[in-house]
Design a protein that fits this description.
Radius of gyration: 21 Å
Number of helices: 11
Number of domains: 2
CATH superfamily of the largest domain: D-Amino Acid Oxidase, subunit A, domain 2
Structural class: alpha/beta
Oligomer: single chain
Distance between the termini: 34 Å
Shape: globular
Helix content: 25-40%
CATH architecture of the largest domain: 2-Layer Sandwich
């Protein structure tokens, strides 16, 4: 089967790339070893985070570093066996979190994220699933005076620097917004520009269906079988080999496994995360996604129930799942809202693909002809998937990109 483009990876980024290329008349086959949206795109917090213009930096406060190093927190844990392999990328992550360098990360992230809501609404309208995108925003809850004061200052900064809207809720207003909270908090920041997705997997599947309705092809295959040909690229699929002139690698945290043999080995690292769904007791409701800022976990109302998502776990890629963060967060979640029984049989786990400079890798490789990259979105794969799809499709088809792709160029590593 001859195509113009092979897109490797059927997560939200790869699906968006494939759909945008198909919109521009390219013959595209989307290849993954699983179904659309069954990887890390399946298990996120379901937020299209217009406000997330400030990436997660490496902690630089000594007390914060000591807290995390104790390995007893909810928001960050690590496997000791993984640390030697993570030393170099984490050191570069720490260096890039220096305030002077961090400015560049904010610049790259803020420009990419500026149109995320519009880009999603565009694809969701074509896919007929705008009902999945709920204009709820989300709430960050605070109980410590210093953290609450800092959060209000950051919200004011986000408005002044990036035009991002929010509302500061005092304790009484928070109780009105979420009447079934079991504890009192000093206040909350309601980030109002962001969207909440009621079913992230259904959204990915709907975008994939929009791609196939336009004539695109989805195939089950192994990206590791990618090889060069005289005229382009070949990958083996369940329906036979597929060849194309160009290939886009959009495999998230697994991308370096494919790019390294081709001469490109960026210093990426993974942040593993877990989720579990719960019912609610009696007639209790959860109106908005909630972040417990003290502990770093989220509670999100979704179709399947209330999804509890954890922070970051640093582990070797082949390490068994160790949902210790979920075990630590669940009692805290139950003290926050009246959670009922677990809905899932076992915790879900996924890996967020992170770069040391906190900016994704989007663009054309220099090591090989007609090889393109779209990965490394860290916590914002769902948020920036459609934006990335549009940007790389415009670059590949010779259009003038709607934003400057320089901050995301692969050559910076």
């Amino acid at each position: 089967m001859q195509q113009e483009v092979i897109v490797l990876g059927a997560g939200i980024v790869g699906i968006s790339v494939a759909l945008h290329l198909r919109r521009r008349g390219q013959n595209v086959v989307l290849v993954d070893r699983g179904g659309p949206g069954e990887g890390t795109s399946f298990g996120n917090a379901g937020l299209i985070q217009r406000e997330a213009v400030y990436p997660h930096p490496f902690p630089r406060d000594l007390n914060e570093i000591i807290r995390i190093a104790s390995n007893r927190s909810v928001d960050a844990v690590y496997h000791a066996a993984a640390l030697p392999g993570l030393a170099t990328p984490l050191l570069r992550y720490w260096l890039n979190s220096d305030p002077k360098r961090y400015v560049q990360a904010v610049l790259g992230q803020s420009r990419l994220i500026a149109t995320c809501v519009d880009e999603h609404l565009d694809l969701a309208q074509e896919a007929g699933v705008t009902d999945l995108l709920r204009p709820l925003g989300w709430l960050a809850l605070f109980s410590k005076p210093a953290a609450w004061a800092e959060a209000q200052q950051q919200a004011e900064r986000a408005l002044a620097e990036h035009g991002i809207n929010s509302v500061a809720l005092d304790s009484a207003a928070l109780a009105t917004a979420e009447p079934h909270l079991l504890v009192e908090r000093l206040g909350a920041i309601h980030w109002t520009d962001s969207l909440s997705v009621s079913d992230p997997h259904a959204l990915s599947v709907a975008y994939a269906h929009a791609f196939t309705r336009r004539g695109g092809t989805i195939a089950i295959g192994d990206a590791a079988t990618l090889t060069k040909t005289a005229t382009g690229w070949r990958v083996r699929t369940a329906d036979g080999p597929v060849e194309a002139q160009s290939v886009v690698v959009a495999l998230g945290a697994a991308s370096p496994r494919v790019t390294s043999p081709l001469g490109y080995n960026p210093p990426m690292f993974g942040k593993r995360g877990y989720h579990m769904h719960y019912g609610l007791q009696g007639n209790a409701v959860l109106n908005h996604p909630l972040l417990d800022s003290d502990s770093g976990f989220m509670l999100i109302p979704m179709r399947r129930g209330v999804r509890l998502t954890t922070g970051a776990e640093f582990a070797r890629p082949d390490a068994d799942a160790t949902p210790v963060q979920l075990e630590r967060a669940e009692p805290l979640g139950r003290s926050l809202i009246p959670l009922a029984e677990r809905v899932d049989d076992m915790p879900w786990m996924g890996v967020r693909p992170c770069t040391p400079d906190m900016v994704p890798i989007i663009g054309k490789a220099t090591q090989q002809k007609n090889l393109w990259f779209a990965f490394g979105h860290a916590h914002q794969g769902l948020t920036n998937g459609p934006t990335t799809g549009r940007l790389i499709a415009e670059m590949m088809t010779g259009e003038t990109p709607f934003l400057d792709p320089t901050p995301y160029r692969p050559q910076r590593f």
